[in-house]
Amino acid sequence: MHRIRRGLLALVVCSGAATSVAAAQDSTAKDSIAKDSTAKVVPPAPLVTSGIETGPLQSGAVVVSLPNASCPLTSSQLTAVRTGVGTSFVGVNAYLYHYFKQAWWSGVRAPHFFFRADWDQEFRDQDKFGHMLGGFHLARVGYAGLRAACVGRKKAIFWSAAYAAAFQLQIEIFDGQFVKYGFSYADMIANTTGQTLAVMQELYPSLRAIKPTVSYHKTRALANTENGQIPGELRPSLDYSGQTYWFSADMNRLLPDGAKQYWPSFIRLSAGHSITDWINPETGAAQRARRKIILTLDWDPEKLPGNAPWWKSVKQTLSYYHFPAPALELTPKMHLSPWYR
Description:
Low-confidence stretches: 1-6, 19-59, 61-67
Shape: globular
Strand order of the largest sheet: 5-6-7-8-9-10
Mean pLDDT: 84
Helix content: 40-55%
Structural class: alpha+beta
Strand content: 15-25%
Number of strands: 10
Radius of gyration: 25 Å
Distance between the termini: 14 Å
């Protein structure tokens, strides 16, 4: 899964960078016109204004207006930010498209475009959680980038959702042209679920108390495939048994005020979904996996001290990864895992 993690990490880092740019936009200007007798011969300093001042401006001041009250950037700053955000989007999308083309669209082409509903296969819908997480981060990163570039909130929400939907739709359209895949209704439902979650968290910030996270460890089946002990096409992105998708809850935000003092703010309660081996590590043959439902406590990096913009970006990026911790596996057999990865 190292390639797919790089893609998701690139999305998350891009979002963190956009958030930092947005936070760094705040700037103020002071009127430095001298009040002595030389003031009449010294050109007045530019007065930067957002256009919402209520008091009178000083006579003779050179006014440099900001784009609008919600975007405190000069035109040159705005150009630089939009160039950086646009370059990041193009770079990340080019990488993701290249990855999908190499990893997925290299098989036998179908005689015609076709649809496929791939629910509950051997890997028990584990791939659908990956689709959902991808849709969530595409929409979330798109929104952060547009807002950093001073696009209005409503427009940013709309266009980020449209961008995520279009990007994932093209993947399904390509899949529909290959015998091995087909256009999947199920994948589209998962994509839309992730995109919708990102949009809803922007419209209703209280929903951010629930965060989708992911963890991964290489399975024995993948290790045996890579060293040639077993045949097959298993690769990290298909190593579903090593992937766990979580919904991590910030309990400090969800608990009533009277109970907050009893719950450490840096501890999240997480519920996860994974599966047992869907590739036999001895033979390489596909087999029907069983679902694993897991409960655990994990660390919330966003609760670490420090509020420097770059550090907040690092913390936000790390917060989407579930770190190893003791966990209670509820299915297929209840037992306590001392160190679940």
